[in-house]
Amino acid sequence: MTDANEEAPPIASLPTVLGALQDPIRLEMVRRLSNAGTAVRCGALYEVINKSTATHHFKILREAGVIERLVIDGQTCQRLRTADLDEALPGVLPPIIDAANRAQRT
Amino acid sequence: MTDANEEAPPIASLPTVLGALQDPIRLEMVRRLSNAGTAVRCGALYEVINKSTATHHFKILREAGVIERLVIDGQTCQRLRTADLDEALPGVLPPIIDAANRAQRT
């Protein structure tokens, strides 16, 4: 397992993080990562869109500091930077995830 | 005082609300409204930008359900729909305001 933490950029500004989360596809990626509570292989984080579109969305999330990429057993995975996010923007993410989970159920 | 509640649209979806908040100018408008805790005349909610740009941003916030417009003593004001937001998206706004306040102080 590659530890991606060494190269993790700082969490971006609040507007940039909100901008990363406001896209429905990216919000769904983050929701799945949060619910998984661990690294998840890229392909399990989206449907419908193609791989290059997904790569674009992962990049925006990564540059905002929301997720990090790591390679586990040769598979590229994404992981939510939960602790870093909660330190930089305390309490911002959990209610957003809760609301996204509720929206998913309705 | 005109009660704007009668015509207030429903709070928009989570991505739309986050999209309304992710712009630095709109986030600052919402931060000032939240800190004021009451209706605020439009001109006190922004600097630098001109009135028509401000009107555009108010419209996006209003359509997302984040704010409502009301007229007090002939002056157009904006008010944060705090209770409606907290009912539709519980807990989402307060930590965003806290983070915005912290960013403002640094």
Summarize the model shown.
The structure is a homodimer of 106-residue chains. Chain A contains five helices and three strands. By secondary structure, chain A is an alpha+beta fold.
Keyword list:
Arc Repressor Mutant, subunit A; 3-stranded antiparallel β-sheet; homodimer; 106 residues; 13% strand; alpha+beta; disordered N terminus
Structural features, described:
The structure is a homodimer of 106-residue chains. By secondary structure, chain A is of the alpha+beta class. Chain A has a single domain (15-91), classed as Winged helix-like DNA-binding domain superfamily/Winged helix DNA-binding domain (Arc Repressor Mutant, subunit A). Chain A is built from five helices and three strands; from the N terminus they run H-H-E-H-E-E-H-H. Chain A has helices at residues 14-21, 24-36, 51-63, 82-88, 93-105, and strands at residues 40-41, 67-72, 75-80. A three-stranded antiparallel sheet of chain A has the order 1-3-2.
